Hints:
By secondary structure, the chain is an alpha+beta fold. Residues 5-101 form the PP4R3 EVH1-like domain.
Amino acid sequence: MSDTRRRVKVYTLNEDRQWDDxxxxxxxxxxxxxxxxxxxxxxxxxxxxxxxxSKISPNTAYQKQQDTLIVWSEAENYDLALSFQEKAGxxxxxxxxCQVQGKDPALEITQDPIDxxxxxxxxxxxxxxxxxxxxxxxxxxxxxxxxxxxxVLSSPIRREKLALALMSxxxxxxxxxxFRACEDLDNREGLHHLYEIVRGVLFLNKAALFExxxxxxxxxxxxxxxxxxxxxxxxxxxxxxxxxxxxFKEVIPITxxxxxxxxxxxxxxxxxxxIILPTPSVFExxxxxxxxxxxxxxxxxxxxxxxxxxxxxxxxxxxxxxxxTEDSKRRELVNFFKEFCAFSQTLQPQNRDAFFKTLxxxxxxxxxxxxxxxxxxxxxxxxxxxxxxxxxxxxxxxREFVMQEPQQADxxxxxINVVIKQMICDSDPExxxxxxxxxxxxxLIDPENMLAPTNKTEKTxxxxxxxxxxxxxxxxxxxxxTAEEPNERxxxxxxxxxxxxxxxxxxxxxxxxxxxxLLSLILELLTFCVEHHTxxxxxxxxxxxxxxxxxxxxxxxxxxxxxxxxxxxxxxxxLKDEYYNRYIIKGNLFEPVINALLDxxxxxxxxxxxxxxxxxxxxxxxxxxxxxxxxDNFYKALESIEYVQTFKGLKGRYEQEKDRQTQRLSRMRxxxxxxxRDARSLEDEEEMxxxxxxxxxxxxxxxxxxxxxxxxxxxxxxxxDKKVKESDDKENLPKRTPTGSFKFxxxxxxxAANGSxxxxxxxxTSTSTTGPNGSTxxxxxxxxxxxxxxxxxxxxxxxxxxxxxEDxxxEDxDExxxxxxxxxxx
Length: 826
C-alpha cells in the first residue's frame, strides 16, 4: 500500500509501563464477521500479516494524543496505541471510532472508564455542573483554583472536563503569567498554590495539555512553578541547573531547527519526570503514563531524524576515527553515540536492525578499538556501553568484524583482545566494568547464538580464531599467578602441599582481593568454555596443563576463589570424558582437592560441601577409573571421614568392581580349562573306540556283511551334508583290511589342534602304527554300525602336545589342512 496517511506503528504497554513496538503497517476499519462489529485492522507492511485486529467497542474509551496518537485499553493492564505517520490518517481513523461510538470527533477522549455507581455519584454532585467554569485567573483566586484542581483527580470524568476547560480558555498561559508576577513580588503563598496547581495539571495526564506546558515559551515557567514545593524550606534551583549547568553540546552542528527543539524538549521533560516530580504513590502511578508516552515517542522521532541525516552521521564518524581529533572532542563524540544507542532502544526491531547496521557500515567497531584503548576512564566506560549495545543486539555482527580484521603480528590490536585487556586492567576495586565485559565475552563465545542457518561455519571458524589469537590473553593472569616455583632440590612445588613428610609448602597463590576477584571471573569464563566448547578447550587444557595450574588456587585464603577452581574441575569431571579422566589420574590432580578437604578439618562450610559433592558425583555415576585411582591412592587419608558415607561408598564400589574382575578372570580360566579337558577326552574316547573295534574283529564275519553294506550308505549321507566334491576324496580312499573292516589315515595337524576343524567334523577312534620311516600313522577303524557325531568339540593347541603332533606331521606331509576328512569311494 502506498497510502502513507494510514501508515502506523502498533505499540503495547508492558508491565514496566514501557511501550513495546509490535511492528509497522497500514490501518483500516472494516466489519469483521467473527467479532460481530466494525474493527480496526493493521496489516504489516513487510509481509501483510495481521498485526492488530481490535473491535471498536461502544464502551471502550479511546484517547487522541499529540495529533498522531490514538490510545485505548482493551482489557485490564493491556493498553494499545497507534502512532500515525501523518495527522490526516489519525483524524480519519478517529472520526471512524467516534462514528461507531456516536461521539463528537472534536473530543480527545470518547468516554471515561467509569462504572454506573460513579456516574450516579457524579450526578449527585452539585458542583460538577460548574466544572467548565473556572474561577478567574487572579492572584486572589489561586487557592480556590488549587483546591479545584486537586479535588478532581479522583474522578476520571471530572479530570476530563477540567482538562477541556483549561484548554479552551488558554488557562495554562494565564497561570504562568501569574507565576512570574508572584515571583517578582516574592509572594510565597501564591507560589505554593501554583506548585499545587501545576502538579495537579500534570496529573490530569492529558497529552494536549503537555503540548502547551512543554512548548519552548512555557516549559521553563512550568519548571519554575515546581521549584516552590511547600514542603521545602528553600526552593530548588532547577531552572539554574537547566540553563547554566546542563549545557547542550553539539559535537557536530545540527542544522535542523525542529530536531534541535525536540532534543531540548525531551531532555527537559525527562528531567521533570525523573528529578522534579516526586515518586508517585501506588494510587498515582498511572497519572503520568501519558508523560512517559510523550517522552518515548519523542525519542523515537529524534533517532529517526538523526538516522535519516546521512551527512550528520558521516561527519561524526569521520571526526571520531580521525587521529588528529583532540581527546576532548573524541570524548564528546563517544558520549553522543552512547546516548544515541540508548535512544535507539525505543525503535521497533526492524528499524533497530537497520540502525545498528548503519553504524557498523560507518565504522563504529574500528572506532571502538581506538577509544577503548584510551586512558580516559569516562571514555572507556562510554565505549563499553556502546559495545554492549552492539553485542546484545547482534553478536554475529561483532564476530564477523573481528574475524575480518587483518592478522597482524601483535594480537593485542584485535578488538576482542582490547576488550579482554580492559577487563584485566579494570581499576575499579569491585571490578564493575570487568564483570560487564566478562558477560559480553561470554555472549560472543556462546555457541547457542552461533547456530544461524545462514552461516553454519560461524561456530567452528570463530572458536578456532578465538583459541588461536585470544585465549592466551585471557588466561595470562591465571598462568602468571599460578606459576610453579622449584624448591632447592629442583622439584615442582605447585600443588604439592604435603611433600617430604608433614612439611606444608604453599605454592604461588594470589592474596590480593582484587586479583582474586579477577581470577574468579576468568575461571568462570573458562568453566563456561568447558561446558560449551568440547574440542577446543580440551586441547587447550591438555597442552597448557591448565587444570594443574587452576588447582593451585585451592590454597587461596579467599574461599570464593578456591570454590571457583573446584567448580572448574567439577565441570570437567561432570563431562564423564575418559580423556579428561586419564589426564587427571596421570597428573594426580585429586591431591590438592583432598588436601583442601583435610585442611578444612571438621568445619561444615561451602568448601566442605562442594568437595564432598564432587566425590559423591563420582560414586553415583560409577566412574570406575577415578574410583580406582582415589581408593588406591587416598583412601587411607579419607577413611576416617565418617559423617558422610561417600568415601565408604567409593570403597564399596571399588570392591565390587574388583570382585567382578576376579569372577571374570575365573570364568576365563574355567573356559580355558574346559577346552583343555575336551581335547584330552577326545583321546580317551578314541582309545575306548579302538578297544571296542578289536573286540568286534574277534567276533568273526557275523557283522562283516552288515558293516560292508551299511557303512558306505551312512557315510555317503555324511558326505552329502558336508557338500564336498567327489574329486577331493581321491587322495584318501579307504582300503579294506584283511579282517574286512575299512581303514583310512588322517593327521592331527597344527590347525586341528588349534580348533580350526569344521563344525561338522567328527572324532574317530584310531590306532597308531609305525610306518617304514618310523613315523606314526593313526588308523581309524569304524565300527560295524557307524554313528555320526554332531557335537562341537573345541581343539586347543597345548605345549605338551607338540611332540606328538610333530611326529604325526612328519608322517602326513601330504595332508595340508586339518579340515580334510576321509572319503569313501563307491
